[in-house]
UniProtKB/TrEMBL annotation, chain A:
<comment type="similarity">
    <text>Belongs to the peptidase T1A family.</text>
</comment>
<dbReference type="GO" id="GO:0010498">
    <property type="term" value="P:proteasomal protein catabolic process"/>
</dbReference>
<dbReference type="InterPro" id="IPR023332">
    <property type="entry name" value="Proteasome_alpha-type"/>
</dbReference>
<dbReference type="GO" id="GO:0019941">
    <property type="term" value="P:modification-dependent protein catabolic process"/>
</dbReference>
<feature type="region of interest" description="Disordered">
    <location>
        <begin position="233"/>
        <end position="277"/>
    </location>
</feature>
<dbReference type="InterPro" id="IPR029055">
    <property type="entry name" value="Ntn_hydrolases_N"/>
</dbReference>
<comment type="pathway">
    <text>Protein degradation; proteasomal Pup-dependent pathway.</text>
</comment>
<keyword id="KW-0963">Cytoplasm</keyword>
<comment type="function">
    <text>Component of the proteasome core, a large protease complex with broad specificity involved in protein degradation.</text>
</comment>
<dbReference type="GO" id="GO:0004298">
    <property type="term" value="F:threonine-type endopeptidase activity"/>
</dbReference>
<protein>
    <recommendedName>
        <fullName>Proteasome subunit alpha</fullName>
    </recommendedName>
</protein>
<feature type="compositionally biased region" description="Basic and acidic residues">
    <location>
        <begin position="267"/>
        <end position="277"/>
    </location>
</feature>
<dbReference type="Pfam" id="PF00227">
    <property type="entry name" value="Proteasome"/>
</dbReference>
<dbReference type="GO" id="GO:0005737">
    <property type="term" value="C:cytoplasm"/>
</dbReference>
<dbReference type="InterPro" id="IPR022296">
    <property type="entry name" value="Proteasome_asu_bac"/>
</dbReference>
<keyword id="KW-0647">Proteasome</keyword>
<comment type="subunit">
    <text>The 20S proteasome core is composed of 14 alpha and 14 beta subunits that assemble into four stacked heptameric rings, resulting in a barrel-shaped structure. The two inner rings, each composed of seven catalytic beta subunits, are sandwiched by two outer rings, each composed of seven alpha subunits. The catalytic chamber with the active sites is on the inside of the barrel. Has a gated structure, the ends of the cylinder being occluded by the N-termini of the alpha-subunits. Is capped by the proteasome-associated ATPase, ARC.</text>
</comment>
Amino acid sequence: MAMQFYASPEQIMRDRSELARKGIARGRSAVVLSYAGGVLFVAENLSSALHKVSEIYDRIGFAAVGRYNEFENLRRAGVRMADLNGLSYDRRDVTGLGLANAYAQTLGAIFTEQSKPFEVEICVAEVGATPEDDSLYRNTYDGSVTDEPGRMAMGGQAEAIAGVLKSNHRSDMSLGEAVKVAVQALASVGGEGGAARAIAANQLEVAVLDRNRVGRTFRRITGGALTALLDGDAAGDAASEAGREKTPTTPTEEAHKPTTSAGSADLEDKPGDKSGA
Amino acid sequence: MAAGFDPSGRLPDVFTNAGTSSFTTFLSRVAPEMLPGRRALPPGMAADLAPHATTIVAIAAAGGVVMAGDRRATMGNLIAQRDIEKVHPADAYSLVGIAGTAGVGIELMRLFQVELEHYEKIEGAMLSLDGKANRLASMIRGNLGAAMQGLAVIPLFAGFDLAAKDPARAGRIFSFDVTGGPYEETGYDAIGSGSLFAKSALKKRFRTGLSVDDAVRLAVEALYDAADDDTATGGPDLSRRIFPVVMTATAEGTYRLTDAETAAIGESVVAGRMENPGG
């Protein structure tokens, strides 16, 4: 008979967390934020066909980072669940919270039951009547779900990106400003020696949930419209942006959130990270 | 939800598997009782059980298509509803009108709208116009059992074909029967109890290459002719300000004429008939 090795549940969970976090950190990042006219999704994505950002329902959008096949699986499930509930009740009765809860249950079950967790991080965003009414939910690989304050970053180096985002983001920004803030945050990492870099328009996937639309609010911004947004009033905004360019790219305290979640925090023992504990 | 109990609380496999892009196929696995065709009906005729929705006309115009429906639902000799809406957008570029048993028709139409939206979200691309018509045909076929007991629903489907080579001919119309279809129509078509009279009127007055505005006017005229000879079709109701629902599908998408716009056209048609009742 083969020798059975004992592995403590604690060790198993820690290994799974590490696998998931490493997988997610390898990928390109995505940011989601509220602005005056709705909710903006910006993901760094080399493919124009394989989407990281998608429509789920009238006022609900989906953004994900990590393994494509795994989050695509969850995206389909979300569309099916939302359409089923919308047909059974009414279109207004489909909420982001319901979807975030279903994802949390599913990711949690996969994390504990399967030999390999999903290497994904998901944002379920619901646009409201005002920026204060927007909800952004972060679903992580272990099934934990957090309610984010109007902005969030996911993926590789999410902490640094979230730091830049936090210092630049305001909920009353226009779409043009919001896109620039999001791209600036994404570009703040990954350059030579940790410096900022430039991201071309064709490497970005941009979409919004438009607050002022009735019915389906999701729309993609591509091609000429995106280039115009990225270049638009570059001169006019330069003066006001000058002060904001010197934002810290080092992780801030709040930015610890992205890759450590409530469920896994006590399983991690990263040296030097225990300052808050 | 009908799928089996899973103690982990995760979404059942039927939600997450790659499987199908069709919402009705998904529904048949998760909640088959929500599909109109899956319900067992007691034997016997049920034709007089529920209100019937009546006349719909569709006209292909240059650069689009127009669909209009009267507002009456009848139950035997009674008017069940004066302001029912039977013409709806199926998605951003297509329209669907329903004649027959009103309740089943409204349910099928809602399901069809979700079907098209669902495919678009899952696949990231819209179905072709022919694909949409085929999908509607299979949903009507699913209702065949109920149709044989008198609860028939016949839709009229029209849309702007984004893949058409000539934008002037992109407006296309599809009709169906209780066993499915679709049958593509040239120029114009009508369904419902007053369709005979509406089609007779259109046969004499339709010309290819009509402008969308002229086609709108022609559709309202045809509905007037249907209401003139068919008691189940409602004409323009000037005292209650109830006028036909008129929608267009063009390259810019679907558009429903406002109440003020349809009122102006309805009043002008009635004024014309004051001088010449035959139109």
